[in-house]
Amino acid sequence: MNNDLLFDFNVDKAAKTVYITREFNASQFLVWDAFTKAELLDQWGAPAPMRAKTKYMNFEVGGRRFYAMISPDGQERWAVQEFTSITPKTNFKMYNAFADKDENRELPGSEWDYNFSEQNGITKVHIIIFNESFERLEKLLEGFKIGFTMTLKNLEELLVTLS
Fold first, then answer.
1. CATH number belonging to the domain at 7-162, selected among 3.10.450.50, 3.30.530.20, 3.40.50.300, 3.20.10.10
2. Can you tell me the distance from the alpha carbon of 148 to that of 47, in angstroms, rounded to the nearest whole number?
3. pTM for this entry
4. Which of 58, 60, 63, 97 could cross-link 109 (Cys pair, CB 3.0–4.6 Å)?
């Protein structure tokens, strides 16, 4: 395993944008699948001890993923992701918003832009997250960085088992 993989997390508060770059020791196709297939997302998409559960996912432009992160005591935090652009294996964009269990969105949300590239067996994922609200960005930022870092570690471990 390559322990020198890049992980970069930067915030531009003035632009209400988070920039994340993460490398994985796996093929671009496998990493793409891990980000775009519900059965794989549910295996890594929540920081322990929480778990992710996708109610449904239709990965196509205009399609949605409706999922929850579930705590050990059964509390659910739902979110809706609407896919706005897909270029297979290299890029997809989505709009993300928290929601209630009936899929009623809690606005404002955020726009996510994922880019995938591979060089010498290392896949690099660039993620740009634009928040509609500075207040939302400020409110979520600390917990988000810790939680997202944990989920990417989960993904790294899952990719080892899938390779």
1. 3.30.530.20
2. 7
3. 0.93
4. 97
